[in-house]
Structure prediction request, 373 residues.
Amino acid sequence: MIINKHILKLSDIYYHKKQFYINNNNPYLDKFIYNYSLQTFDTEINNIENVETLFVIKTLHHCFCHAIIDCLFPIYWAVNDINNNNDKNINLKNLTLFIREHEFIKYPGYNLRKVNNNSQKYNGCWNDLISIISEKNIFEHNLDNNKAIFIKNCYFYIKDDNHSRSPWSCNKYFNGRGSQISPFSDLTLKKQLTSFSNFVKSKYKLQKQNLNRNIVLINRRGKRNIDEIIDKLDKILNNFSNYKGIIYLEDLSFRKQIELFINNFIFIAPHGAGMIHHIWSKNKVIIEIISTSGVNRMYKRISDITNNLIFQIDRKHILSNIKEIIKLVLNTYVEHDPLNIISSPYKKKCYSVYFPLENILKYEIQNKEMILF
Prediction:
């Protein structure tokens, strides 16, 4: 059975020594399974573990933002598809995730270091991420070859979904991803992403508590930081009474990172993986500091699909313009009513706007329209 294009369901199968033993020659096997055999499995093997429901997936990406939006979110969506298919054999409480070996072999330098071989769990935030779906995980590359598994209900996520369950589905939204069109509409994508966001916040028992229009400055440790301008930015932002200071996401737990983005209003940050946290809320203001002139499609797309407002500004322009931008936002942007700031030349289906850096010289609001000079 194929469920919503990307999930294959098989029943009563075995796994042993890097192979799934399939009891029927399904025509779709090669699209979903790397190693399988159609031979009858030898059930005389002594060490057989029984698993009621197994979902075979690829590993989480080594980059934090891709781990969330290109891996975890599609897994959550796929589980929703299975549940919506009136298949009551699977739910998030009894699901075991089988993380296939293929990506560990293909990219060992990136992926092997994300797994603690002693605990058989992901390291750090990656364990927090996968635990959102299930705390029961099997890493194929670490399995004992003397052990076999009998799986009552086995679901396989397709080997290559062409990123079609990600907001970054093609070159229009993420450089290098080709021109293919996702089979899912933006409306469907947005619905699933909202469901995912609400599920994660519910799991952590998070609700918006801070109604103030707080400003947060985020910096990064390591690559793509803004160390050379951070002190000057901090000094400028201290002119605003609702400025909450400099934050390093690396110092916060995954839960605290989500909480930060739920309970504050304006975020100033360099381009980087942490900006994916805007999926947890809407009608916020993001000021993304980038290193080159031109549209950065990644987070422009995320802002569009989540109803957030984004300014993308080259770091060489940020110091001379940040105070004006924040004044503009605080004076005109009403949370839960973003149309107060977004006007017809820029407004599409979502509440996001990009300003070419060389044109950020002066702003004026006239009749609820943004005028650039």
In short: Residues 336-373 have pLDDT under 50 and may be disordered. DSSP finds ten helices and 17 strands in the chain. The chain has two domains: 2-167, 215-372.
